[in-house]
Every structure is written in C-alpha cells, then in structure tokens.
Amino acid sequence: MKLRNLSKNITPFPMTSLETVEKAYELFGKGDIDSLRLLMDDEISFITYGDYSHAGSYVGPDEVIEKNFSVLAQNIPTLSITPTRLWESEGTIFVRVELTDGELKTDSIHVWTLEGEKLKTFEAFEDTQTVAKMIKA
User: Fold this and answer.
1) What is the pTM of this model?
2) 14: pLDDT confidence band, cut at 50, 70 and 90?
3) Which domain holds residue 75?
4) Tens of pLDDT along 54-67?
5) Is the pLDDT of residue 9 over 70?
6) In a domain, 11, yes or no
7) Please, where are the H alpha helices in the chain?
8) Could you tell me if residue 48 is inside a domain?
9) Beta pairing partners, 97
10) Total domain count, the chain
11) CATH no. for residue 98?
12) Is residue 52 one of the residues assigned to a domain?
C-alpha cells in the first residue's frame, strides 16, 4: 500500500484537540492557509467582534479566509498572534493569545470547538479598542 501525504504540514496521525488548535496557530503564523483550511470543518462557524472590516460572523472555510483572514492581513499586515496558554474544558479549547503589531500589544481569549478532528467553531474575545488602533487606514 502506498500512502500519499496531501500536505507536508499536516500529520498523518490523529491529533488531540489541543494539538489541532496549536497546529492551526502554527499554520496561520506561517501563512500556510491551504493547510489550515484542511483542519477546518466544511461548516466552521467563525466569529470576531468589533467595528472593523474583518469582524463578523462567517460560515465555511472560504468565507472565513476571504472575509476574515484576507481582510485582516490587509488591515494589520504586521500582526503577530502568539498563543501563550491553551487549555481544554468539557470539549472546548481556550487559547490565551498575545496580539502584537509594532509597539501595540494586547491579550485576547480565543474559544474553539472541534467536531471529530476538524475545527468546528471559533469565537474571539479581544480588546477591540487596541485592535482598532492596530488597523492600518
């Protein structure tokens, strides 16, 4: 039997929910959105709050990538998102992240759920005033 690796960045072995979420941040940080898409459920629900163009409620990988990731990259091109703590409770993954853009920094909480081995829901609780300051007009 010959196995084919669909993406060099996705492990062929099952990952735990925490490992899957960690991998998502790693891939996002590298800009490997194609591999990140493979971790997403076809009906992923992705919510970010705030009064800026990448905020909103999106469903499905295409909408998340087009309306959040792509717009976020335009709004804050030098943004760094660094997970500083991950924990799981009753099937929900909580991630404390540090958002950095130059001299501006803030901490946020991201909340994930998975269905099987796929990212099913995401909700970001962020300091919207600091994020708004990071946006490049």
Assistant:
1) 0.87
2) confident
3) 17-134
4) 999 999 999 999 99
5) no
6) no
7) 17-30, 33-39, 61-63, 70-75, 128-134
8) yes
9) 83, 108
10) 1
11) 3.10.450.50
12) yes
